[in-house]
Structure formats: C-alpha cells, structure tokens
C-alpha cells in the first residue's frame, strides 16, 4: 500500500513537471526501476525495504542527471518507456517473452525520441511514465477494472502532455500560452 501511494505521488509530479524539473523525472524513473527490481527481480518481501531501494536508485539517477543531462535522459527514457511496455504487456496478458520484447522495443523508442526531439521527448516520455505510475499505484490502492484503469491513464497522459507543452510555448487542444 505504501509503495502504491508513493507511485501515485511521484507519478503525478512526473506527469505534470517531468520536463521542467528534469532531474526529478530521471530520479522518478530510477525510483520506479529500483522499486521494480526490489519487488520482482530480488523478491524483497518488506515494502519498506522495497521503498528504500527505489529511493536509493532514484537519488543516484537524479544526481547523475544533474551532471550528465542527455545520457541520463536517454537512460530514463529507456527505463520509463520500457516500464510502460511491461505494464502494457501485463495488462493484455502477454507472455514473459512478449513483455520483455515490449520493454526493449518501447525502451529503444524512448531513446530514439530523446535523441531526435529532446524537449518533446521529455514531455511525452515523462507524461507517459507519470500516467502509467499513477495508474499502477491506483490499482495497488483500489482494484479497478482494466478498462477504467486504461481510460484514466490515457486521460492523464493527454492532460500531462498539454500541461507540459505550455512550457515550450505550444498550444495543445486549447491549452497553452496565449
């Protein structure tokens, strides 16, 4: 429950402020990665230990982002988009091999987006990662149907992209600078 609440909170920050507070987006990607490794990879039973592992990895990623902006943006995009691939694979009941393929394919797409379109990639990837984290955290707090959870994630994604696009002077669906 505690890790689910943290996922919602950090997901909301990433969803709406991922580009503006770049190091936070990278730190959140590290947090989610560390949390997932502790939960799934290492099968640590204690939620407190899982949370501490996520915080530790997130702090390392955030610190590195301050010094190595572009490379860490690519690492964060790979992890963030890959995590979305894993989540998507789990939602549709894909096999483990297919989930790994989705992780790698979407992770690579995230890296390519950052390499080609830095600002837009940060907006899209951070909003997508934030929306997915909020959706995942919500499922841990309250059991929702897959359809409702997916609808919430899509709605949050649209809101996050529109909100962050204001920072680069773009108007999206009536939301933006005037």
Task: Detail the topology: elements first, then pairings.
Elements: H1 2-17, H2 22-41, H3 47-67, H4 69-91, H5 96-116, H6 118-141, H7 146-165
How would you characterize the overall build of this protein?
With 178 residues, the chain is mostly helical. The chain has one domain (2-168). It has 7 helices and no strands. The protein has helices at 2-17, 22-41, 47-67, 69-91, 96-116, 118-141, 146-165. Helix 1 packs antiparallel against helix 2, helix 1 (2-17) runs antiparallel to helix 6 and helix 2 (22-41) runs antiparallel to helix 3 (47-67). The longest helix has 24 residues, at 118-141. It is globular and about 40 Å long.
* Cα shape: globular
Gyration radius (Cα, Å) is 15 Å
Number of helices: 7
- Helix/strand structural class: mainly alpha
Low-confidence blocks of residues: none
End-to-end gap = 41 Å
For the biggest sheet, the summary is: none
Strand proportion, as a percent range, falls in under 5%
Q: Report mean pLDDT, rounded to a whole number.
A: 85
Give the SSE string.
HHHHHHH
Question: Percent range for helical residues?
Answer: over 70%
Number of domain modules: 1
DSSP strand count:
0
